[in-house]
């Protein structure tokens, strides 16, 4: 199992490197659409749809992401006329992750499949477009900002193993603790302070230290919410992984669960920086 995980991770890193440095923005947008199409298939399975409906959902997700990317971006970045629509989309997604999803998990709601379809659009489309936004800004900002989630996950894991005593959400993910969450917050704050000059050098206007700290706190919180939400969906569907597309790692959603929650917030941040504004 470990060997399989390592080999898959190497292949994913090689593929990511090739995509980031070898593709222009339109080609990268098509790749994102393909990946999100697979994630759409996984989401439909988690939502309880049958085999053929889930496959159709994957195709429709691919077409939706590809169509929106074609409307919103040209070869140089975000189109001026798409700025308002992207802002609204990211704002809706951010409110969903900050308010609606925590309430959903707290009240253990069981929504209809129609609601799950709409939720799937919110879960998948805004982060896809935010990822393309990031790539338009540059490879380094993309890696630095996505690493916020990776740092949070790693810190939460080790802090939870070392100091974890109080369960964060025992009915959803028994392994997660408040101590792990605190470790994630601390690590992201330190990491965020370290990368601020690099983001400034890349043309992104990093806000004042207090505002930047709050933004990092929000990113950490929603990354945890995104992880817990996918865990809840898998538990309700009776599935260990969202799929077996990535041997040793599970599915696409298993790898991007936290990113689906954080990327819309990052997208809003980009819209208010010099390089993140529409062309």
Describe the protein's architecture and organization.
The chain has about 280 residues and is mainly α. The protein has one domain. Helices cover about 75% and strands about 5% of the residues. The chain is built from nine helices and two strands, in the order H-H-H-H-H-H-E-E-H-H-H. A hairpin with a 3-residue loop joins strand 1 and strand 2. Helix 4 packs across helix 5.
Compute the separation of the termini in Å.
47 Å
- Mean pLDDT equals 92
Q: Based on DSSP secondary structure assignment, what is the total number of beta strands?
A: 2
Order of helices and strands: HHHHHHEEHHH
List keywords for this structure.
279 residues; mainly alpha; two-stranded antiparallel sheet; globular; disordered C terminus
Short description:
The protein is an all-alpha fold.
Chain-wise SSE layout:
Layout: H1 2-22, H2 25-46, H3 51-72, H4 83-106, H5 113-137, H6 139-163, E1 167-169, E2 173-177, H7 178-201, H8 209-237, H9 252-271
Antiparallel strand pairs: 1-2
Helix pairs in contact: 2-3, 2-5, 3-5, 4-5, 4-8, 4-9, 5-9, 6-7, 6-8, 7-8, 8-9
């Amino acid at each position: 199992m470990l060997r399989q995980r390592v080999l898959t991770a190497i292949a994913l890193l090689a593929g990511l490197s090739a995509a980031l440095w070898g593709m222009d923005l339109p080609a990268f947008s098509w790749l994102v659409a393909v990946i999100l199409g697979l994630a759409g298939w996984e989401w439909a399975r988690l939502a309880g749809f049958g085999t053929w409906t889930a496959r159709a959902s994957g195709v429709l997700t691919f077409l939706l992401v590809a169509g929106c990317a074609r409307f919103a971006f040209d070869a140089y970045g975000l189109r001026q006329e798409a700025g308002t629509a992207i802002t609204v989309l990211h704002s809706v997604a951010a409110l969903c992750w900050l308010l609606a999803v925590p309430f959903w998990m707290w009240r253990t709601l069981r929504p209809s499949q129609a609601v799950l379809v709409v939720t799937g659009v919110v879960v998948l489309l805004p982060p896809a477009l935010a990822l393309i936004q990031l790539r338009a800004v540059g490879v380094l900002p993309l890696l630095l900002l996505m690493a916020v989630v990776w740092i949070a996950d790693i810190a939460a894991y080790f802090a939870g193993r070392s100091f974890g005593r109080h369960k964060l959400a025992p009915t959803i993910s028994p392994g997660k603790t408040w101590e792990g969450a605190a470790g994630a917050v601390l690590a992201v704050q330190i990491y965020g302070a370290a990368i601020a000059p690099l983001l400034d050098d890349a043309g992104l206007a990093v806000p004042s230290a207090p505002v930047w700290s709050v933004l990092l706190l929000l990113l950490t919180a929603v990354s945890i919410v995104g992880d817990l939400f996918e865990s809840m969906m898998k538990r309700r569907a009776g599935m260990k992984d969202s799929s077996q597309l990535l041997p040793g790692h599970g599915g696409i959603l298993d790898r991007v669960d936290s990113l689906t929650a954080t990327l819309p917030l990052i997208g809003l941040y980009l819209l208010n920086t010099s390089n993140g504004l529409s062309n």
